[in-house]
Amino acid sequence: MMRWLLIVLFPVVQSYLFGCYYDYSQPLVLPEQLPIGVCTHVLLIGAINVKNLNVNIIQRPYNGLNALQSMRDYRTRDSNKLKIIPSLVGDDDEWKTAMKDSESRSKFITSLIDFAKSQDLDGLDFDWEYPCGAYKSLFSQFIEELRLGVRKIFGNEFLLTTAVGAGKNTIDDCYEIGRLGESLDLIHLMTYDYHSIYDKQTGYSSPLYPKSIETDEARQYNTEWSAAYLVEQGVPRNKILIGLEGLGHTFQLNDSNIHDFAAPVVGTGYGGGWMTFIEYCLLVKTAGSNWDDEAKVNYTYYNDQWTNVGDVRAAAEKALFVKANSYGGAFTFGLHLDDPTDLCHHGETFPIHKTVARQLDLL
Ligand SMILES: *[C@@H]1O[C@H](CO)[C@@H](O)[C@H](O)[C@H]1NC(C)=O
Ligand SMILES: *[C@@H]1O[C@H](CO)[C@@H](O)[C@H](O)[C@H]1NC(C)=O
User: Fold this and answer.
1) Which of 254, 258, 260, 266 to mutate to test the pocket of ligand 1 (most atoms within 8 A of CB)?
2) pLDDT over threshold 80, residue 13
3) Can you give the C-alpha Rg of the chain in angstroms?
C-alpha cells in the first residue's frame, strides 16, 4: 500500500536524452565555451576516422588527441554526468574493408575497444554515410559483434550509437533498422536535409510535419514521418533521438514575387547553397521572417533569395514533439553552429541548445 502510494505521489518521469554533435574543426565555438548542464552526451566529430582496420587519430591540421582531451575537460566541468562519444567517420572504402569478413571486423573491434579504454570514453558513434547494399547486413553484424566485445570490457553503460539518414530510400537500402534497433543504444535520426534545389522548388530543410498541400510520397519528407517509420520497423521509441540542424539550404527564386513554400527556383542561393543559424537570425532582423504553422518552421526571402534555418521556436516545437511522442530525446548538429556569444540577442548564449534542454526538462 505504501509503495503504491509512493508511485502515485512520485510518478516515474521519463528523462530525455540530448545529444550534441561538436565539430572540433569549426573554431567559431571553442571547447572552453561549450555550455554546461545542457547536453547529456557530446558527439565529437573530427578527432578520429577509420583507416586500415584501425581507429586512426587525426594528426593534421590539428591533433585529434587535443580534441579528445578537451572533451574530457568538458566532461569534468559538466560535473561528470556528460558522456563523451567520439563520432567515427571514414572513407567508404575504409569502412567496407573493415566490415568485409569476420577477421577484419574482429581486428577493427579490438582497435575500437583499445581506443575507448585508453581515451576513457563513454561510447562510440558510427557515422558511415551509408552502409548500403551488401554492407547493410554486414554493418548490423559488426555492431552485434562489437556489442559483445564492449559488454565484456565495459558492461552495459558504454553507449553504441549511429547517425541514420531520414529518407525512406536511405533507411530501406542502407540499414537493417529493426535489427540495429536491438543492438544499438541510440539512433540519431538525421531529420533534416529533406528538401534542396533538386526539388526545383523551395522547401524546408527540416519540417516537423507535412503541409496540407503535400500528397502521396511528399508526405514522407518530414520529421514526424521518418520517426514513425523507424517505430513501424521495430525500433524502440526510447532509442530514437530527433535531429536538429544549425544549417539550412538557400535557393534562388525564379520569380521574386513567388516566394512561398514550393515556389519555383532556378538554383542554389547565397553562401554556396547553405546558411547557418547565426547568419539566418542576423538576416531576419532586417529581411523579416515568416512562420509556417503547419511545418513548424521559419523562413525568409529577399529579392530573389529564399532560405529557412531552424530557429529557437522551431527547436522548441521539435522538443515538444519528442515529449508528446515519447521519443528518447533530441540531438543537434551541432554545438559549433549555435550562437556562443549571443550575437543574435536571444538573451542567452547557445539559444538553440538551451531552448531544447529546457523543453526536455534538462535545464
Ligand atoms: C520562371 O519565370 C519566368 C518569367 O517570370 C516564367 O515565364 C516561367 O514560367 C517561370 N518558370 C517556372 C518553372 O515557374
Ligand atoms: C520566426 O517567425 C516568427 C513569425 O514571423 C517571428 O516572430 C520570429 O521572430 C521568427 N524567428 C526568427 C529567428 O526570426
Assistant:
1) 254
2) no
3) 21
